[in-house]
Design brief:
The chain has 20 helices and no strands. It is rod-shaped and about 105 Å long. The chain is mostly helical and 407 residues long. The chain has three domains: 88 residues, no CATH class; 134 residues; 154 residues, no CATH class.
């Protein structure tokens, strides 16, 4: 910042007279006299923010006085004057702005959670939207000084808020809530800071900011759901709503590879250990197949994610018996329920001899995947993947016959 001030001084000295030079230095020194950083506690944060706002008001008035009618001098005058002020900025200045930004964003978030509709939340942001501070920041050309702080608060705040909204809520649609939240809380906050239309310098359009918020929020949502994916799989099909929404969001963000790597590591850490019995591992394996079939119908990620599970089950001595027990357990066997559900679907879909079979028309599309019911193809895939753990079905047939004989 000192080098910037020296360069600005060199450029501006060619334009400025002695009186204007002295006025600029005096106005810059007055700026920090009006701001007290001795006590930067939360209790005095509001007062400190008011002092900074008043000081920037005074700096803007001083800048107007320094400006001449010749447009060529405006940029050099602004840069020199701003460099004089910011070169003397204490570290507490940026820290205070960070705290004010975080407090305002979290305040908008809390207001959203307490309100029944987005209109009420929008009114809570009016004081921030019309605050003169960020207007003055753009006019003085200071935004580059705060850009890193604004970005940090923006991304960290969205990550924290999205995780708060979606925490352990897998059976309720979340995307429409996030849509309302970003329109009523995040976008007004960012527009007030980064998209000030009254500024002539470094402002971005509201549409550009809206697109940025849309992208960051959906990417953060996907990241949050990927962190929760193990629990989502464990609660499937009750968590089917979260799976379907995650599939929709993935279509926009294309974070499939990140999902596959993260889920694979999570399965290894939380599932493949001596504390989990074989039947639990198999049930989780089945649920993982079902969820991945929804998230990735082309099955590109399935083998990558489940390969460690398959290899681990190969070394469990009771794997075959647990699979066969799951197939034959009428009370709690998931494979037994899916197998008989599939048989019922096949029998129920058989047409009588008198029914007329219509050929598919030009507008025919395949039926969408149903998260609640397994279709015959999905059931065959699950069974084939379980059997292929050992590479042959003779072992399963032999064990199946032995268990039937025991009954």
């Amino acid at each position: 910042m000192v080098l910037r001030a020296e360069k600005a001084q060199s450029d501006w000295s060619k334009l400025a007279g002695g009186k204007r030079y002295s006025y600029a230095k005096r106005a810059a020194s007055i700026f920090w006299l009006g701001v007290n950083f001795d006590d930067n506690s939360d209790s005095t944060l509001k007062q400190l923010a008011k002092e900074i706002t008043r000081a920037t008001d005074g700096a803007c008035e001083a800048l107007k006085t320094l400006m001449t009618t010749e447009e060529i001098q405006h940029s050099a005058t602004r840069d020199y004057f701003s460099a004089l002020i910011l070169s003397c900025a204490p570290t507490e200045f940026v820290r205070c702005i960070d705290t004010v930004l975080t407090t305002s964003l979290m305040g908008a978030h809390v207001s959203f959670l307490k309100c029944d509709n987005a209109k009420t939340v929008k009114s809570t942001n009016q004081s921030l939207a019309v605050s003169p501070f960020w207007t003055n920041v753009h006019v003085l050309g200071w935004y580059h000084f705060f850009r890193e702080t604004v970005h940090k608060v923006f991304y960290q705040g969205i990550d924290r808020c999205v995780s708060d909204i979606c925490a352990e809520r897998y059976d309720t649609p979340m995307l429409h809530i996030l849509e309302r939240w970003k329109k009523s809380a995040v976008l007004p906050w960012l527009v007030a800071i980064d998209g000030n239309r009254s500024s002539k310098f470094e402002s971005r359009s509201e549409e550009a900011l809206r697109q940025l918020v849309d992208l960051v929020v959906v990417e953060t949502y996907v990241g949050a759901r990927i962190k929760q994916l193990y629990n989502i799989i464990a609660e499937f099909p009750e968590s089917a709503c979260a799976v379907v929404e995650l599939c929709s969001a993935l279509a926009r963000t294309r974070q499939h590879c990140f999902l596959a790597c993260s889920l694979r590591l999570t399965l290894c850490r939380r599932l493949l250990h001596l504390g989990a019995n074989t039947s639990q591992i198999i049930e989780m394996y089945i649920s993982t197949i079902k969820v991945l079939r929804i998230l990735d119908p082309r099955r590109i990620l399935l083998d990558t994610v489940t390969l460690p599970v398959r290899r681990y089950l190969q070394h469990r001595k009771d794997t075959v018996r647990c699979i066969v027990a799951n197939l034959t357990d009428e009370l709690s066997g998931e494979l037994y329920e899916e197998l008989h559900r599939t048989k019922s679907m096949i029998l129920g879909s058989c047409d009588s001899d008198n029914e007329i079979h219509d050929s598919p028309g030009e507008d025919w599309v395949p039926n969408p995947s149903n998260c609640q019911n397994a279709n015959p193809k999905t059931m065959r895939d699950i069974l084939s993947m379980l059997i292929s753990i050992y590479g042959t079905r003779e072992i399963f047939v032999s064990e199946y016959r032995r268990m039937l004989a025991d009954k």
